[in-house]
Write a structure and sequence with these properties.
Blueprint (H helix, E strand, L loop, with lengths): L8 E8 L6 E9 L7 E4 L6 H14 L4 E5 L16 H4 L5 H6 L4 H18 L4 H10 L1 E5 L9 E2 L13 H18 L9 H15 L6 H9 L5 E2 L2 E2 H4 L2 H16 L10 E2 L2 H5 L7 E6 L5 H19 L10 E5 L15 H10 L5 E7 L7 H4 L4 E4 L5 H14 L4 H9 L5 E6 L6 E5 L12 H11 L16 H19 L26 E3 L9 E16 L4 E12 L13 E2 L17 E2 L9 H18 L2 E6 L4 E2 L6 H72 L6 H57 L5 E5 L6 E13 L4
Parallel strand pairs: 3-12, 3-13, 4-10, 4-11, 5-10, 6-9, 11-12, 16-24, 17-20
Antiparallel strand pairs: 1-2, 1-15, 7-8, 13-14, 14-15, 17-18, 17-24, 18-19, 21-22, 21-23
Helix pairs in contact: 1-5, 6-7, 6-12, 8-10, 12-13, 15-16, 20-21
């Protein structure tokens, strides 16, 4: 049971013989890409349904696939209970004292029992602490608790933000309707779709989003009272929904905002799927949303918001045939009913229909299949069927299995009725017939639902200081620029504040005075003041340039406007661009006049009052910018991917992971395609050989029987006939002798057929070894993450256009 670490294959358990229930040799490996057609896990309490769901998520994490898991019961937090040491001390904090008492022992002894149980259980499935450690290294695991500070907090504000990316008007309207339903349900307003209240709130959201504007609950409350439109369709707004009714609706929503503790819904990480699926470093994450502590209305509100956010995310992703991420929801009952239309049903149906094309697999789990919408079940490709509670549930599942093909009703009914704990019948549309299997032992310790205090302790143990990426932001100056800026910053700051540096260029005491007279031909600009109060300006030289950074081989062509400020003095070298600092200021934002007529000015150095100097400085500025400006990008040589200007290291890492997965799956497909004709030919050769064995065995058996009869007849004739041999007796003896010869020939034919079949089996085994070797080579290539290269693109000759060099008056802080 060790041959299960294979690319793109999830180790689910061990296949069983449907006739006897006996385990078969070798692991059951499930192609992760089959999850793109989604999956359903069905089973009553105690069937092992949650354990199988955790197995699926563990395997996905090991394969580098991130997961968003919605946990209404609080069980899925067990994914964080992973103990590579498998020691009693690691299990002890998670032992329930009541469980120990019921077992008639102490908590310490019970922890030792659990550690021994888990060690033995894992070993029986070919697993150990090293595989647990591999799981922990492969992905980050976090528990989010919306509306509570027990786990990681998540803010719902982004759910009211304007959709971005490629969402069309229809998608925006659909999302607005779903968000309106969720918000009204949270406020306890019975407003079904197309009701007056629902249409009003959805229209307000849609109106803002179409204009690219986001809202939050507070602004939604205000706009319900005074909507941004006067008519609704062709009807006057007041006639459609009078002000008095709008006020009452606004008060209901305002009551939600004013409820104690609701501020915790606004704190924490944004409800952004990209940020939830990957950490700040670009590491895959299993994000578990524990909502057991919420009321029914709050659960529905949050789940529908999250699902709508996921829909928006998948629509921004390019198409793929690889599995990019998984959305798992435990205990789906009530969120996807066959008749009613809660806020969660619409987005779930949309995900089941559309998520596949964008690489998202949806896994749903339930105890009662009759409580699910049949339209959604028609979009699910894999069913994991465990023990069922009622005959009605079995009948519903049987109908689905028989309709899908592969099982006779009687056979399917027999298997469903005989399922034991942790044994599942898997119907996968990508396989020829259903499979009976026992799910493997989980790497995580299944101790049951976690309380908020336990979640708080778990998350505190998970917390670690955030690592600041050791990269230069794309589009920012390169390392040499940063080093030069750091070296000159103290001196520049001192000259700007008047506390350091040469005193040349100041008045007798460096005091501020009226605006100096500047000769014609010198362009003057004013940097906007960022603080209130009296403004004192100090003279600097500002250089503005437009720089093109292009590399055809990398498909990069960026235009960049840069602004630098350099101090000017009356020294021997009045201006040195090496001491300039990059200004975070677009050239268009500088002003032509001072911020105030009462502004004061530091003295102007003599060199800055000479127009001819500015032409010289412009030439030297152009040369300096050409040497200074660089566009630093990350490059992955193996995949030939280059980061885009402005793309963060995290986002590039995520893009590399997805591209690597696509390349890996394409390589595996190519191997399968390469060997498919040989496999088909060998399979046919083996089939014919096995058919020949059966035929030859049948013929040999028949010949043996005939020979035995002939010999028996001859012997009996010889014993009971006359003493003198008759011609008939001699003839029977001759026939019997020939029968013996033919029987020996048939036996030899059987042996030759078996030798042919054995040769065919050996050829199949050799071919399987070749396939495994090729796949292993792919594995070694893709599991070794190649380091990024940093490529720097410099402007070519003629790619720096100096826009102007001017005298810049820069405000400095003064004491009033």
């Amino acid at each position: 049971m060790t041959d299960f670490e294979k690319l793109g294959l999830l180790y689910l358990g061990r296949q069983q013989d449907p006739a006897t229930g006996a385990s078969q040799s070798g692991p059951l490996l499930y192609d992760s890409r089959d999850l793109l057609t989604h999956a359903l896990v069905v089973g009553m309490t105690g069937s092992g349904k949650t354990g199988l769901g955790i197995v699926l998520m563990e395997e996905a994490a090991i394969d580098g696939v991130p997961v968003i898991a919605i946990d209404p019961k609080g069980d899925l937090g067990n994914l964080l209970l992973t103990f590579p040491s498998l020691s009693a001390s690691a299990f002890r904090p998670w032992i329930d004292e009541d469980d120990a008492r019921r077992a008639g022992t102490t908590a310490e002894a019970f922890a030792a029992q659990q550690a021994s149980l888990w060690s033995a259980g894992l070993a029986s499935w070919g697993q150990d602490g090293d595989r647990i450690e591999r799981l922990r290294r492969a992905a980050a695991f976090d528990i989010f608790t919306p509306g509570s500070r027990a786990g990681r907090q998540v803010s719902i504000l982004s759910s009211f933000a304007a959709p971005g990316g490629r969402e069309d008007d229809e998608s925006v309207a659909e999302r607005a309707a779903g968000t309106a339903t969720s918000a009204l349900a949270l406020a306890g307003v019975d407003a079904p779709p197309r009701s007056r209240e629902h249409n009003l709130v959805a229209s307000i959201l849609g109106h803002a989003w179409q204009r690219g504007e986001g809202l939050d609950l507070a602004s939604l409350v205000r706009q319900i009272q005074t909507p941004p439109f006067d008519t609704f369709g062709v009807v006057d707004l007041e006639a459609f929904c009078p002000a008095k009714e709008r006020f009452a609706l606004a008060m209901r929503l305002n009551g939600v905002l004013a409820a104690p503790g609701f501020e915790s819904w606004m704190e924490g990480e944004p409800l952004d799927p990209q940020g939830l699926l990957y950490t700040a470093e670009g590491r895959p994450r299993v994000a578990i949303f524990s909502i057991a502590h919420l009321g029914d209305a709050e659960r529905m509100f949050f789940v529908s918001l999250l699902l709508n956010q996921v829909i928006g995310w998948i629509r921004r992703q390019p198409g793929t045939t690889s599995l990019r991420a998984i959305l798992y929801m435990d205990e789906i009952v009530g969120y996807f009913p066959p008749v009613a239309n809660p806020p969660s049903k619409g987005p779930l149906l949309t995900l089941l229909k559309q998520a596949r094309a964008h690489g998202l697999g949806v896994i749903l789990a339930t105890q009662n299949p009759v409580d699910l919408d049949y339209k959604g079940l028609a979009n699910i490709g894999t069913w994991f069927l465990g023990r069922l509670q009622t005959e009605r549930d079995k009948a519903r599942v049987l109908d689905g299995l028989v309709a899908a093909g592969g099982f006779e009703p009687s056979e399917a009914g027999r298997l469903l009725s005989g399922l034991k704990k942790r044994v599942f019948l898997m119907h996968n549309v990508h396989e020829r017939r259903p499979v009976l299997f026992e799910s493997r032992w989980t790497l995580s310790y299944l101790r049951g639902p976690l309380s908020r205090d336990q979640i708080r302790a778990l998350q505190a143990a998970q917390a670690a200081p955030a690592r600041t990426p050791d990269v230069v932001p794309f589009g920012a100056p390169g390392p040499r620029v940063a080093a030069a800026t750091a070296a000159t910053a103290p001196a520049v700051a001192g000259r700007a504040s008047g506390t350091d540096g040469p005193r040349a260029g100041r008045g007798p005491s460096g005091e501020a005075a009226g605006r100096p007279l500047v000769p014609p031909g010198i362009r003057e600009v004013f940097v906007p003041a960022t603080t209130a109060g009296p403004v004192v300006y100090r003279p600097w030289i500002l250089g503005a340039a437009r720089v093109r950074l292009a590399d055809r081989s990398l498909d990069v062509d960026e235009m960049r406007d840069v602004v630098y400020l350099a101090p000017v003095t009356d020294g021997a070298v009045p201006l040195d661009w090496a001491g300039a600092t990059r200004a975070d200021l677009p050239a268009a934002d500088v002003e032509a006049t001072a911020a105030s007529a009462e502004a004061r000015y530091r003295p102007l150095p003599a060199a800055a009052a000479q127009p001819r100097r500015y032409g010289e400085w412009a030439k030297s500025f152009g040369r300096w910018v050409a040497q200074q400006e660089r566009l630093e990008l990350f490059r992955h040589p193996g995949l030939r991917l280059t980061s885009r200007p402005g793309e963060s290291e995290r986002d590039f890492r995520i893009r590399v992971q997805l591209a690597a997965r696509d390349a890996r799956d394409a390589a595996i497909d190519a191997v399968r395609k390469k060997y498919a004709p040989k496999q088909a030919a060998l399979a046919e050769r083996l089939r014919r050989a096995e058919s020949a064995i059966a035929r030859e065995q049948q013929e040999a058996a028949g010949q043996k029987a005939q020979t035995a009869i002939s010999i028996g007849a001859t012997v009996l004739g010889a014993l009971f006939a006359r003493r003198a041999a008759t011609a008939g007796t001699i003839g029977r003896a001759t026939t019997a002798a020939r029968g013996v010869g033919r029987s020996m020939k048939e036996t030899a034919d059987v042996e030759r057929a078996e030798a042919t079949a054995e040769a065919a089996r050996a050829a199949v085994a050799r071919l399987e070894d070749d396939v495994a070797a090729d796949v292993a080579a792919i594995s070694s290539r893709h599991e070794q993450e190649a380091p990024f290269e940093v490529v720097a693109i410099a402007p070519k000759r003629g790619d720096v256009e100096v826009q102007y060099v001017a005298l810049a008056w820069v405000p400095e802080a003064t004491a009033s």
